């Protein structure tokens, strides 16, 4: 069960709670937070996922790249895994410089030289998408709801009259990502994604409740 976001920092009692940080999502095991740091007179906002047991951290996004994480409910924590959607803009002046990804990271410490890459896939049918909801499994798979977005639109854009899509992705035993479209339509509620019993999640498509397995 998620702990209610705590807003401002609660002190530096652990590596997962640095001074000045703001909680985005938190569970018993982990925390996703943002913190602004000043370097050379410039403030940069960083978003981290942190595993409480080990204090190990993963950088999810930062203004320096620049990249931005979609807010909850497009951030999901379960066990050591963090699933999230990130909007990147590596070259604002070049075509194709802006891309939206869905990513899953295992926050457990990894041995130097033996690091395993997490899941990284395009969030939508095109390069740029808006992600309204996301759920990650305790095996690193993920289901999310996305809708199209203009390439120059803001992170919180909410285009009307477009098809929302529900996707599922996971890594196979060789580390290859597989993406499957589960649903498509104008009546999908992008914020309706919920965990159900067992390993299933549900969402609303018009008046219907639909579900799929989250491996």
Kindly list the characteristics that best describe this protein.
mainly beta; five-stranded antiparallel sheet; disordered N terminus; 0% helix; single chain; 215 residues; globular; four-stranded antiparallel sheet
> How many DSSP E strands?
16
User: In terms of per-residue confidence, which ranges show pLDDT below 50 for 5 or more consecutive residues?
Assistant: 1-12
Radius of gyration: 17 Å
Q: What is the overall number of helices?
A: 0
The helix-and-strand class reads: mainly beta
Overall shape:
globular
Structural description of this entry:
The structure is a single chain. The protein has strands at 22-26, 30-39, 42-51, 57-62, 67-69, 75-78, 81-89, 98-106, 119-122, 129-136, 142-148, 164-171, 177-185, 194-195, 200-205, 208-213. With 215 residues, it is mainly β. The chain has a domain at 64-213. The strands form four sheets. Strands 5, 6, 7, 8 and 9 form a five-stranded antiparallel β-sheet that branches. It has a four-stranded antiparallel β-sheet with strand order 1-2-3-4, with no helix packed on it. A four-stranded antiparallel β-sheet has the order 10-11-12-13, with no helix packed on it. The model is unreliable at 1-12 (pLDDT under 50).
Summarize the structure.
This protein is mainly β and 215 residues long.
SSE blueprint and pairings:
Layout: E1 22-26, E2 30-39, E3 42-51, E4 57-62, E5 67-69, E6 75-78, E7 81-89, E8 98-106, E9 119-122, E10 129-136, E11 142-148, E12 164-171, E13 177-185, E14 194-195, E15 200-205, E16 208-213
Antiparallel strand pairs: 1-2, 2-3, 3-4, 5-7, 6-7, 7-8, 8-9, 10-11, 11-12, 12-13, 14-15, 15-16
